[in-house]
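1st attempt posting a full record on here, be nice pls
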Amino acid sequence: MAKARRVGTSALRTAQRAAAGVLGGTGLLGLLLFALGREHAWQALGGGLVVAGASTVVGGALGFLFGVPRVKSGSGEPQGSYAPNTNLEQVSDWLTKVLLGVGLTQLGSLGERLHQLGTALAPALGGEDAAVPFAAALVLYFLVLGFLAGWLVTRLALPQVLTDADQALDLFLAGQDRDRHGDKVGADDLRVRAMQHLGLLGGSAEQPAALAAQLPPSSGSPAGPEGVVAEVRSTAKRSALTVDQVRDLFADGSEGRRIQALALMQGDPSLADLPSVLGAIEHPRSGFEQYHALLAARGLLSRLPGTEAQRLRDAVAAQLVDPRGIPYGSDRSWLAEKILSRLQVAALVPAQASPPSSAARPAPPVPSVPSAPPVPPAGDGS
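the predicted structure (as tokens):
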């Protein structure tokens, strides 16, 4: 069913592109044929292209004004301290009403206005009598075409762009709140999702439907594996599990169990098992699993001794340079680079030198005592 829907959507988009190409190509072909019949063909063609382009831009601007979406009322207060700015919506509403009013009052003189427009633009198309109606028709054609294109693009694309921006803002604010409460892993996860909404990062590989069935049931969290993982992460510190139990859960073998164990490690770093995290980074079952392994490693950075930190650094760096490892520009590469930067900073901090022990201290030199002068032997006094 989903495959058939994707095929239908692809066919619809192909038909839309074909229709737009035919409409634009028809106008340009008519302009080319008209210019070839003029004495100064190149001048007529250049002037016609400028007139067509200007008409398209004006029509697109009008279509944008008519297609600006409205903010839904009664949907509750937005998250954070920001509310959507509706100035553009109000300006669009006012200009639309003004343009409609002026257009309706001038509807009776439309033919005369078009003739005046064609007369004014005729010199750019050769200056002959035939250029007057053609110039008026060219303006009308590309004005309507630009209006339809501007309205459709604004109506179809702008609402999604504004929605993604609002959702990204909410996620950034929620990430800042998590950061203030000490949840660094949850804050990074929300920041990554916000950048994905803005198109700054590529997401991990899509998950099969079987993965959601392998994860524990969700109660009130957003649908999908991401929501379930976030719920498991939030309940990690309240669970009675031990490190050995979480390690056994990861070693279960199924991808759902492995991701559940990684989520527990993210929520409570004391449950983390470095070999399991390294295994998910170096030999992941999917990009989704590797992403959550990197999140779990992010929470372990302050707990790792020098040798284990080196193992984590080598594993992450190897995945970044491996062509089949972490793809550049993805959510995983952002996390990996952040982990490496933290490990590099920790490696550059010099260890504090301990004072030498008393056994190793050299003995202070003993001061030399000058010898007394020799005492002459006692005589008999004679």
